Amino acid sequence: MSTAHAAVLVCSSLLLAAAALGADAQNAEKSSTFVPARLWDGKTPDFRGIWQARGTAHVNIEGHGGEKGVAASPSIVIDPLDGKIPYKPEALAQRQRNYAARATADPSSKCYQAGVPRATYVPSPLQILQGPGGTLAIVYQENHAFRVFYPDTRPHFDAADFWMGDTRYRWEGDTLVADVVALTDQMWMDQAGNFHSPDVRVVERYRMTDADTIEYEARIEDPAVYSKPWTLKTVLERVKRRDTRIIEDECLEGEDGVRYHISPSDPRNLLKTDYSRWMKAPTE
Known about the structure:
Layout: H1 3-33, E1 49-53, E2 77-79, H2 89-100, H3 102-105, H4 118-121, E3 126-130, E4 136-140, E5 146-148, E6 150-151, E7 166-172, E8 175-181, E9 201-210, E10 213-221, E11 230-238, E12 250-253, E13 259-262
Parallel strand pairs: 6-7
Antiparallel strand pairs: 1-3, 1-11, 2-11, 3-4, 4-5, 7-8, 8-9, 9-10, 10-11, 12-13
């Protein structure tokens, strides 16, 4: 390669990098100045709609390579900067055991609810519902899960053990801030076996960066498992098809006694309301 050719390549790379930085700065400025629509009270930011995270962070929030049928994903852990969860040594050993057994041990694959924050970035949509008087809830397609967001003036439940936790919320400007405790330690945060103890506290932040995008951030604190708090961040996109709705996500028990997800269109799905099998005449 000639010196002149190399110089051209360097200049081109610099121009592309400068353009990318300029676009990032423009997008950051746009998101910081975006003002969401309001509910009918004229005050409350309107987050209503069906939203979905894209990508495959649900496989491993620390990032993973691609494999057949699953695209690669970078880490969505933004703090620490290395993208790794700051486990204590004994907790890291447990995570490694979880990972080794992930094919059969993941609670979500057995039809348990995904929990917080995992329910936000699983590969199925969620619906944010708002109403007068501060009413706020999220309904998840995954396993019929839902969460009611209570104003943070109400105290948390003590000594509770919920799959979706106990949530209190407040508004910081146009950002929805939710404080979540009382989460069961039986849930995983992804398919790779990342986990927490029942003492975990999750502080979520939902911020609209434009009319069709929510930036989701979760700060996780659990001194029993992690050496320091850490933060993940991902993006939810509005599902804009006019016929979009949250559909049923059903589970049935297999011959091995384990419950499995089945498609809503699977004929076996009708079994959940087929009571005739219990009304057969007794054998003589």
